[in-house]
């Protein structure tokens, strides 16, 4: 679905933020990007979404160079849920979710009946029915996250890019949102800070350190005690729950 080869990115001030990254996203997989603060995770997501122009290397998306897509074409195939959660003007929940259909409106003024049906379906899925007429600025952090996810979902993207999708969510909502995304069987690439959520949700993990991919591969093979110590500089244990029989990571 997407393949980046020898990707490097240098900021305007000359700082090398990403160094020779190779990354592959297969269809219907959840790819996770983890690493310490400032190691380049968000920058990498922005490069994959073609939001940075001065990127070295090559990104092929659906067998085409990412640079060959117009903004509108790309928005029909790829959605990015950003960390930013404010808008220059105050929109209602409904208005923000509707924006996800703009790339498809082909110059029409209003939305089609099918757009409205899709929007209503997603609103229900994310339990936002009673928030549709509320102003975004008045919503809680968790509600804002769900609205931004709803906007991305109505874009019906082939690839969904998520920058810390569980930010501001309580423990219950974190699991709920990630399970829901999993059940939708989408192709995703996400930055996740919570190691346990990454361990649980992702099929494949890229561990970044100082702008380089330090380890990459299937989650359970890559997120080992030794690799986590090297990349995050913390000691952890990986234990098995007596009750759920699932493994989880504890910081020592
Ligand atoms: N446009 C830019 N110009 C200069 N420096 C930048 C630019 N964009 C990012 N950086 C720097 O590059 C580094 C990586 O930033 P990035 O936001 O990608 O990190 P991150 O891994 O997502 O961090 P966090 O976990 O804290 O969100 C940081 O030191 C940041 O200050």
From TrEMBL:
Residues annotated as transmembrane: none
Residue ranges constituting the ABC transporter domain according to the UniProt record: 2-235
One family name in Pfam for this protein: ABC_tran
InterPro entries: AAA+_ATPase (IPR003593), ABC_transporter-like_ATP-bd (IPR003439), ABC_transporter-like_CS (IPR017871), P-loop_NTPase (IPR027417)
Record keywords: ATP-binding, Nucleotide-binding, Transport
Gene Ontology terms, MF aspect: ATP binding; ATP hydrolysis activity
Superkingdom assignment: Bacteria
Gene3D superfamilies recorded: P-loop containing nucleotide triphosphate hydrolases (3.40.50.300)
UniProt-recorded name of the protein: ABC transporter domain-containing protein
């Amino acid at each position: 679905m997407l393949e980046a080869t020898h990707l490097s990115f240098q900021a305007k001030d000359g700082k090398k933020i990403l160094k020779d990254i190779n990354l592959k996203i297969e269809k219907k997989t959840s790819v996770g990007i983890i690493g310490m603060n400032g190691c380049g995770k968000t920058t990498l997501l922005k490069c994959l979404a073609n939001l940075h122009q001065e990127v070295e290397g090559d990104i092929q998306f659906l067998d085409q160079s990412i640079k060959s897509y117009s903004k509108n074409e790309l928005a029909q195939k790829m959605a990015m849920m950003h960390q930013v959660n404010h808008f220059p003007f105050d929109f209602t929940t409904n208005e923000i979710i509707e924006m996800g259909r703009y790339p498809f409106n082909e110059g029409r003024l209003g939305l089609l009946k099918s757009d409205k049906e899709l929007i209503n379906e997603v609103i229900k899925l994310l339990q936002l029915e009673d928030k549709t007429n509320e102003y975004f600025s008045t919503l809680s952090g968790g509600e804002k996250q769900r609205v931004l996810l709803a906007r991305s979902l109505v874009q019906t993207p082939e690839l969904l890019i998520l920058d810390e999708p569980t930010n501001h969510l309580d423990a219950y909502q974190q699991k709920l949102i990630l399970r829901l995304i999993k059940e939708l069987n989408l192709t995703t690439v996400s930055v996740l800070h919570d190691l346990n959520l990454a361990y649980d949700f992702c099929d494949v993990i890229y561990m970044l350190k100082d702008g380089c991919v330090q380890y990459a591969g299937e989650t359970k093979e890559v997120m080992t005690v030794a690799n986590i110590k090297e990349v995050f500089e913390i000691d952890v244990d990986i234990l098995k729950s007596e009750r759920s029989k699932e493994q989880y990571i504890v910081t020592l």
